[in-house]
């Protein structure tokens, strides 16, 4: 079975109504990114940050995967598919994708603020119980913080994603301008000769070996699915 690796960015979720992490205008849902998505912002006002992600989770819970998400999941009928996403929502999982690597964290999880990556103190929230009371402590006594890779922090899953990219027989990029590193660098791990498809409505310079489908996530995936699912 051929292996497809799909790298998705903000443009994947925008059709579902979500403004996603790292938008270019420096605001996320009208909040300055520096206040809600940096370690300095968290240190300065953990209550603001906690309440921001509470708001974001409630917004996300009412959101549904779009046709693009569903078509990515449908590729699993014929291929071994790994999704590498820069998005913090769980729309790929909701659409049925079984292997998803989150580079920038997961909105529905919280963790220790002393050791973000210690699985003992990571908690997955549910739609019925998605709010964290500011001041709530993790199991190690530190404040519970969002399981989000803040700006300036390392991206621990990038090495896992790079290994997946190296094994890809087909590499698909959806809804990302390839401007945010380290995620943008994953294309360099793809073996020479492997087909690379880029779905984005904006023209993106990504090299001569990349075939761009200049459409949004859903329309672009319809076109690509017709080719790949023959």
Summarize the structure in short:
This protein is α/β, with parallel strands linked by helices and 230 residues long. It has eight helices and eleven strands. The radius of gyration is 18 Å and the shape is elongated.
Characterization of this structure:
The chain has 230 residues and is α/β, with parallel strands linked by helices. It is 28% helix and 20% strand. The chain is built from eight helices and eleven strands. The chain has helices at 10-13, 33-36, 39-44, 46-61, 67-74, 91-95, 158-167, 217-228, and strands at 3-8, 27-28, 31-32, 80-85, 100-102, 105-112, 123-124, 144-148, 170-174, 196-199, 210-213. A six-stranded parallel β-sheet has the order 5-4-1-9-10-11, sandwiched between helices. Strands 7-6-8 form a three-stranded antiparallel β-sheet, with helices on one face. A two-stranded antiparallel sheet has the order 2-3. A hairpin with a 2-residue loop joins β2 and β3 (31-32). The radius of gyration is 18 Å and the shape is elongated.
List keywords for this structure.
single chain, 230 residues, alpha/beta, three-stranded antiparallel β-sheet, 28% helix, elongated
Question: Which helices and strands appear, and what pairs or packs with what?
Answer:
Elements: E1 3-8, H1 10-13, E2 27-28, E3 31-32, H2 33-36, H3 39-44, H4 46-61, H5 67-74, E4 80-85, H6 91-95, E5 100-102, E6 105-112, E7 123-124, E8 144-148, H7 158-167, E9 170-174, E10 196-199, E11 210-213, H8 217-228
Parallel strand pairs: 1-4, 1-9, 4-5, 9-10, 10-11
Antiparallel strand pairs: 2-3, 6-7, 6-8
Helix pairs in contact: 5-8
